[in-house]
Design goal:
With about 270 residues, the protein is of the alpha/beta class. It folds into two domains: about 5-70, no CATH class; about 75-274, Rossmann fold. About 35% of the residues lie in helices and about 20% in strands. The protein is built from nine helices and nine strands. It has a seven-stranded mixed β-sheet with strand order 3-2-1-4-5-9-8, sandwiched between helices. Strands 6-7 form a two-stranded antiparallel sheet. Helix 3 (about 45-60) runs antiparallel to helix 7 (about 125-135). The chain binds S-adenosylmethionine. S-adenosylmethionine binds near residues 69 and 149. Pathway: Secondary metabolite biosynthesis.
């Protein structure tokens, strides 16, 4: 992006022009940046705004403009977090799909999970580089990062078929309409070990009434609990597997609520292979 294109791009409503230090970053991520990354408390805000502005030049996603890449990954999934850290310590493996800056990986490592059992994957190499800058850990983080498109069946990621016990997918499946989500979900499911206890978990934008929505940022299917269960029933039937789905809708009380309609929610999900 040129300088003038960049300035023009920042005029969209999903580029937060005046972030509020009391909201950015969220408390759990601030704690991570202070303790895991060692950033002094009075420098955290400045640090994340600088990184957000650099990331925006690579790809002006709403999640970048609105600082959503700083959202904690397990705040509504505390028991799954404990279970995953424990199982990673026993040698199991997790993929952070569409890791972007990779906050999920750092949350797990800060909690005692061995970094070498955690993989990150994203389409944009620039985000991964910025994750190192955000968390100041390039010289110590042992996790492996892959650059791949989930739809590319010849990628380095696709070679890791059935390799993972867990896939975390945060703000990922909602990048598409229902058909795109189904295709991406099936590709993610193929990366899971085909055994009981394998798990796909995460969060994304949902809604009280499930529906496909087209806006300036593209087409998005916003699930509720029932529609997500129905999708995974279809996926299971097509793959010859059974998945159980636990999901819940969370109201948006934070800074992002102003960008969404009344019935928009965040949907948190844990999908287990039976
Ligand atoms: C909204 S961000 C999610 C960030 C992070 N997972 C989180 O929970 O905050 C979406 C990410 O998906 C990645 N992405 C988009 N399309 C993709 C694809 N086809 N394959 C792999 N990653 C993709 C983008 O590069 C971006 O980093």
């Amino acid at each position: 992006m040129s300088k003038s294109e960049g300035a023009e791009a920042k005029k969209v409503k999903w580029f937060e022009q005046n972030p509020n230090e009391s909201e950015v970053p969220p408390a759990a991520t601030r704690h991570l940046l202070e303790t895991y990354s060692g950033i002094p408390s009075d420098k955290v805000f400045e640090h994340v705004v600088k990184l957000r502005d650099e990331a925006w030049e690579i790809f002006p996603y709403p999640c970048i403009g609105q600082f959503r890449f700083l959202e904690p990954s397990f705040i509504q999934l505390p028991s799954e977090y404990d279970e995953i850290v424990q199982r990673l310590r026993e040698g199991q493996k997790l993929l952070d799909m569409a890791c972007c800056f990779g906050q999920t990986i750092r949350e797990l490592v800060a909690g005692g999970a061995p970094a070498e059992n955690i993989f990150g994957c994203d389409l944009q190499p620039g985000f991964i580089d910025m994750g190192y800058k955000l968390f100041k850990d390039q010289d110590r983080l042992q996790s492996k990062f892959l650059i791949a498109d989930i739809f590319d069946s010849n990628s380095e990621l696709a070679k890791l078929k059935e390799a993972f016990n867990f896939v975390y997918a945060g703000s990922f499946f909602h990048l598409w309409g229902r058909e795109g989500q189904k295709k991406a979900s099936k590709a993610v499911a193929s990366l899971l070990k085909p055994e009981k206890g394998s798990m796909i978990l995460g969060r994304q934008i949902g809604a009280v009434e499930a529906a496909e929505q087209t806006s300036a940022t593209g087409t998005m299917y916003r699930h509720n609990v029932e529609s997500l269960k129905q999708l995974w029933k279809e996926i299971g039937d097509e793959l010859g597997a059974t998945f159980s789905v636990e999901a819940k809708l969370q109201e948006l009380h934070d800074i992002h609520s102003k960008f969404h309609s009344e019935d928009t929610r965040r949907i948190w999900f844990v999908i287990r292979r039976e």
